[in-house]
Amino acid sequence: MLDLIQAYENYLLHVKMASSNTVCSYIRDIRQYSDWLSRCSGTDLAEAKQEQVRDYLTFLQEQGKSGSTASRALASLKNFYAFLVSSGFVEQSPVAGDIHVQRGEKKLPQILTGKEVELLLSQPSCVDAKGYRDKAMLEVMYATGIRVSELIELNVEDVNLDLGVIKCGSSKKPRMIPLYPAALRALGTYMKDVRAAMVGDPADPALFVNVNGVRMSRQGFWKILKFYQGKAGIEKDITPHTLRHSFAVHLLENGADLGSLQELMGHSDISSTQMYTHMVNQKLKSVYEKCHPKA
Are the CB atoms for 52 and 106 separated by under 8 Å? Predict the structure, then answer.
């Protein structure tokens, strides 16, 4: 079964040209399903039947997983088995029938207020290399709204300090995003005065590196963010995506149009961007109900 999963992973990477984050999500879902199959019935992926897929989705929801998590697992399995059928590994997909997941009400993502953002960004103490690096990373995240995967994949060559922009995204669809002055200063100081002393190999292209001198990981940045959340005393559950959501909502609140925001966020479908319009409207409604004397 590892051969089937490996073949699918190679297909995603080299044929579909999917992002590393997408590939990791798909493969994780499939491995979890494969482990469950082995434990519960001794069946492998090529022998699975539709009823076992249904049982697995029920199992996920009984374990307290959200409807969106179960839906994502179902989508991963549909794509996986479609690949197996088209490649001749199996004759029929066990997910080809009428299988649905009750998604439940979709929760809007949490965002930070402007004051909370300022409080968070002020936490890194620029007294050592780590503090300068952390300051630059947090400023860049909020200044650009990029995904955490895009942040840690940035290379030195992706930054143009003279123009005040960074380049991110795939080679097929790169996007240029400007930096506000404070973020540009923090990034410039890190690149000119700090990074060379932190990086292990001078030839390493990685922009942000950890204390071991190698490229920062998603987990590493998550720990950094949680540390400064605690230091700032912010009670909201902040994740790297919280800064991305906050970036989008704050731009809309200050007059940005959806088309420009879509381009900055790197959304292929504008419906993903429209979610933030709903969040702004919900916030305005809340303010109205709280402040209007007749509400």
Answer: no
Q: Token pair for residue 211?
A: 């204390």
CATH number at residue 150: 1.10.443.10
The predicted model scores a pTM of 0.65
Q: Within this chain, do residues 238 and 162 fall inside the same structural domain, yes or no?
A: yes
Give residue for tokens 């919280």.
Answer: 242
Give me the pLDDT at residue 270, please. 82
For residue 100, is it within any domain? no
Q: What distance in Å separates the CA atoms of residue 207 and residue 187, rounded to the nearest whole number?
A: 10
Domain with 258 in it: 114-290
Regions of the chain where pLDDT drops below 50: none
Residue 209's SS3 state is strand
CB 105 within 8 A of CB 97: no
The answer to whether residues 168 and 229 belong to one domain is yes
Q: How far is the C-alpha of 214 from the C-alpha of 199, rounded, in Å?
A: 6
> Which pLDDT belongs to residue 43?
80
> Is residue 193 located within the same domain as residue 231?
yes
Predicted confidence at residue 154, as pLDDT, reads 96
Q: Do residue 239 and residue 284 come from a single domain? A: yes
Q: Count of domains in the chain?
A: 2
Q: Which of 107, 106, 138 is closest to 121 using CA atoms? A: 138
Distance CA 240, CA 153 (A): 14
pLDDT value for 246: 94
Reported in sequence order, the residue ranges of the chain that DSSP labels E, i.e. its strands, are 159-160, 165-169, 174-178
Give 250-286 pLDDT, tens digit per residue.
999 988 998 999 999 888 778 778 878 877 877 777 7
Q: Is residue 275 part of a domain?
A: yes
Going by DSSP bridges, is the β-strand pair 159-160/165-169 parallel, antiparallel, or unpaired?
Answer: antiparallel
Angle between helices 240-253 and 218-232 (to 10 degrees): 70
DSSP 119-131: HHHT-S-TTSHHH
**Per-residue model confidence as pLDDT tens digits over 14-51:** 998 888 888 999 999 999 999 998 887 778 899 888 88
